[in-house]
Design goal:
Two copies of one chain form a homodimer. By secondary structure, chain A is an all-alpha fold. Chain A has two domains: 1-48, Arc Repressor Mutant, subunit A, CATH 1.10.10; 56-192, Tetracycline Repressor, domain 2. Chain A contains nine helices and no strands. The first copy, chain A, has helices spanning 2-23, 30-37, 42-47, 51-75, 80-91, 95-109, 116-142, 151-172, 177-192. Chain A is elongated and about 60 Å long. Chain A starts with a helix and ends in a 5-residue tail after the last helix. The relative contact order of chain A is 0.10. Chain A binds a DNA duplex (30 and 30 nucleotides) through residues 1, 4-5, 8, 29-31, 39-43, 45-46, 50-51.
Chain lengths: 197, 197
DNA sequence: TGTATTATACTGACCGGTCAAAATAAATTG
DNA sequence: CAATTTATTTTGACCGGTCAGTATAATACA
């Protein structure tokens, strides 16, 4: 019973995500969500307080999912370079696979200023990202292949570089550039960490 | 006559900008624009084709203005480091002064995927940004203080770092962090350019 | 006076949220 | 186990309200 309700909530979140990738966050209507979920219009308001509640939960779901996938990728690697490479490869996993995720994420980012819940969710996401950065840096310092004065600052810089690259790539929207931005991002981070072979 | 019309158009663009900073791009109405411009509702439709036309011109205006101010700042400097510092200082000019600009810019970015005009405007903006990066890099190479393999790639990385830092700063929305992100951004770019004293 | 500009009222489309009724599932009972 | 009652879920029509765009009236100005 509670299980079925949980299923429905996931179904509606997925529908909202799909609608957002196709129409853009702001222009998604309750009717769109219902259509993508193949239910009638009233259902969304039965399982969620209101439309904004749907999107708050969606934002939380997306950022958590991005982080978990990234964390899983780097934990499979032993070396600092391996971890960093896995991290960047995960971020730029494939044009089709994550483009929608980050597009919707960008939609949410542009709303953060108007919504304290979003701000909090994103703050948590950042902290997760920085912890990934720290893990890679610490590993590299142990291996004595990085030269980093301020670990915290470097971890922040890593995520700046990733987000900046990702956004510039998204904005140009050219499948050919996918590899280019991935390697550019990777190599720039190596320089920020003053990698020495 | 044509001069007055031009004035009115600017007035409306500014009003649209102000409305966007306060209410967020998507929720700005024609009435809002009219209110901020201190005119009646019909005026906007008299000087612009429609609402979307207003925002397209606003986006163009904002990106052009950001670029021009950045370009002016770096051209006042002679050395590579001076130029880079002026560039970053201009980007992070002051929390209040440019926060609104970049917030609205971020609003537009999230719309790029749904609007080819926006995409084109942003592409031009990027090209301007990269040209600033190239100028700084060339200067640094002449001075022999940078070590850059691929100038184009480095110029792109610079803007990735700037946008990434800017967005992360905007999302955290803490006045105290302004200086922190400015210096972090500056120092990271120096490392990307492999600056040697 | 006539043209350009601005103000105001109006229209039609759309949207979020509500709600009563219908459908379905679960529980109870004889 | 079947009949009946009760609880849960789903439907879609509907309402109040908003908005973009239009039409028209009023005003300024040359």
């Amino acid at each position: 019973m509670a299980k079925k309700a949980e299923q429905r909530r996931k179904q509606i979140l997925k529908a909202a995500f799909q609608a957002a990738t196709e129409k853009g966050y702001e222009s998604v209507t309750l009717q769109d969500i219902a259509d993508y979920a193949d239910v009638s219009k009233g259902v969304t308001n039965y399982y969620f307080k209101n439309k904004s509640d749907v999107f708050t939960q969606l934002f939380e779901w997306i950022t958590t999912r991005i982080y978990e996938k990234e964390a899983a990728s780097i934990s499979e690697q032993e070396t600092a370079i391996g971890k960093l490479e896995a991290y960047i490869n995960r971020v730029f996993i494939s044009p089709e696979e994550n483009k929608n995720f980050y597009r919707v994420y960008l939609d949410f980012l542009s709303q953060v200023k108007n919504n304290d819940s979003y701000k909090e969710i994103n703050q948590k996401f950042y902290e997760n990202c920085w912890s990934i950065g720290r893990e890679i840096i610490h590993q590299g310092l142990e291996e004595e292949i990085f030269e980093v004065g301020d670990v915290e600052q470097a971890a922040i810089s890593i995520r700046c570089m990733i987000d900046g690259s990702l956004i510039q790539w998204l904005m140009r929207d050219d499948a050919q550039l996918h590899d280019y931005y991935r390697t550019t991002c990777f190599e720039s981070i190596l320089k920020i960490l003053q990698y020495k072979k």
